[in-house]
Amino acid sequence: MSCLSSSSEQPSIAQEPSQIAQWQTVPAKVYVQAGQRWGVLGTMGCCFAPLAASCLLQPQVGDLVLLTFDGRQAYILAVLERSGQTAQLQLPADTVVRSAGSVRVQAGGGLHLQAAQAVVLQGADVALQAEQYLLQARNVHLAGQSLHSYFAQRQEYSGQRQQVDGQSQLHAGQRVTRVAGHDDYAAASQRLVIERDWRVRARSAELRGAQRVVVDGQQVHLG
Questions:
Q1: Which of 35, 38, 183, 204 is deepest in the core (most CB within 10 A)?
Q2: What is the tens place of the pLDDT at every residue in 129-178?
Q3: CATH code of the domain covering residue 55
Q4: Distance between CA atoms of 100 and 49, rounded to whole angstroms?
Q5: Which pLDDT value is given to residue 21?
Q6: Is-above-0.90 flag for pTM?
Q7: Closest CA relative to residue 84, chosen from 16, 156, 24, 33
Q8: Which domain of life does this protein belong to (predicted)?
Q9: Domain-embedded: residue 117
């Protein structure tokens, strides 16, 4: 029996006149894919058939599928045996998965999420646990009421940094600051409390006061 073209609007399968109106279900072998139709070969002959709406697993060449037909049209109901190692699920329209309980996705290998548009995670709490976490994005925006971070070691590298705080406090056991170029500091007022030593060393130093300059101590050495 000759195979029908994949472009046929209504694939026809040769049957006895008494069987034309009856739906039959038979196993068939996939030998080719043409767009959203698959060429199958079985006891009924060969034809091209689309997937039934309930068949989410995409057949591949060499797969054994369950085919239903009535002589005028045919549909692939399910994939019975797969010939390859990769399985592909295809949903033809927007899909919503609802569960009365929790939903868990477990993968023996990796888990890859890819979308042409936005990926949205929304929940009362979102928890992420990993040995290594890598985030790469052209622009990153974080917004919230509070932010808490705890690190045993932290390193930051940036080409340019601007920070604006309404109030800022820094508590450190020890701090070392090195500026290769110019360091400019401006404040309405400043108070330094040094419990032990305070040393300033410069090639050229200048201290000015618009009204008063006070240098006081038990010993003052100039020159």
A1: 38
A2: 989 999 999 999 999 999 999 999 999 998 998 999 999 999 989 989 99
A3: 2.40.50.140
A4: 36
A5: 56
A6: no
A7: 33
A8: Bacteria
A9: no
User: How far, in whole angstroms, is CA 116 from its chain's centroid?
Assistant: 11
34 lies in which domain range? 17-81
**How many other CB atoms are found less than 10 A from the CB of residue 74?**
28
Overall number of domains in the chain: 1
In a domain, 128, yes or no: no
Which is nearest to 10 in space by CA: 77, 72, 75?
A: 72
Token couple for 116: 């042409």
Residue 213 located in a structural domain: no
